[in-house]
Amino acid sequence: MKRLSEVKAGVSAVIKEFENDEIFIKLMEMGCVPGEKIKVEMIAPLGDPISVTVAGYNLSLRLNEASSIFVEELSML
């Protein structure tokens, strides 16, 4: 497992768990729930924020938010 903030642009992953309970509710309301597929679409030139696709829509996350989401990358077959 790795943090979402470590995933490169263009890579898909599955959300596994959250590190921080206080941000957990906010992320769940945005569609970031365990088991949901998430794809890193773009990373800003200075690295913050990142743009992801989750639950059928685009979402921008700050690095501190993305670093609290643990994911498992999907292998390219």
TrEMBL record:
GO MF annotation list: transition metal ion binding
Domain named Ferrous iron transporter FeoA-like: residues: 2-73
Keyword list, A-Z: Iron
Cross-referenced Pfam families: FeoA (PF04023)
Superkingdom, natural source: Bacteria
Alphabetical list of InterPro entries matching this protein: Fe-transptr_FeoA-like, FeoA, FeoA_core_dom, Transcriptional_repressor_C
Residues in coiled coil: none
Protein name: Ferrous iron transport protein A
